Amino acid sequence: MPTNNLKHVGQLVNTQRRCIVVFREVPDDIDNCLVVDTDALPDWMHDDIIKAVESPAAQSESDFYEYAQRTVFTDGSAMLTKLHTAKLLQKQPSTNVSMTPNRETSILLSDLNALIRQQANGGKPLAPEAKADAPVVEDKTLGLSDDDIAQQLLTQAEQFEKEALALRESAYEMAPELKPRRGRPSKAKVEAKAQAEAEAEAES
Question: What residue segments make up the domains of the chain, in order of their start?
């Protein structure tokens, strides 16, 4: 495992089980998050998701789901979709998740989220929230709807299409001769049409 700090990794406060934080905040429910209990995963899935988390692309994202929705497990299944359909996404209070970017550092996810929101607010302190000890909770699986997953995948696909179009246009600017020509039939098509017309006249 890399020696530098890692995003998205932590452990549950009440059980000390290791986890990956997939969603730092649940939409419309910022006091909760979605995690994957890595200690409960099959070995191959555990190795896949750890490699994914450690990848530079995943480390560049503020939420792991942003990377998970565009990568796959070794069995070819979409990572985020697989975690959802296999009911491996657990809803947890953000006060029950301690982020552990390295062996010496830990911070409650609730505190980390507050810092991130403060930075997004231009560094202005937000209204203080009531603090409470992390409760002992039971794991609860949040079933994101298929529509939610599908919408995320469609949004990602649209972004890829725009990037592909931009790359294609850049390639045509560098090598205009590669750009397909429109409106002018190929020589082969012209000859085939002429031959067909000649045969039709001969038969008549």
Answer: 9-143, 160-203
- Model pTM greater than 0.70? no
C-alpha distance from residue 35 to each of 80, 168, 195 (Å): 12, 38, 68
Quickly count: other Cβ atoms within 10 Å of residue 187's Cβ: 8
191: Cα separation from own chain's centroid = 52
Q: Mean pLDDT, 10 residues at a time, over the chain (204 residues)?
A: 77 95 91 95 95 95 94 94 94 95 90 88 52 43 62 69 67 65 62 72 67
Note whether 64 and 22 are within 8 A (CB): yes
d(CA 109, CA 93): 9
Instruction: Determine how many CB atoms are found less than 10 A away from the CB of residue 86.
Output: 13
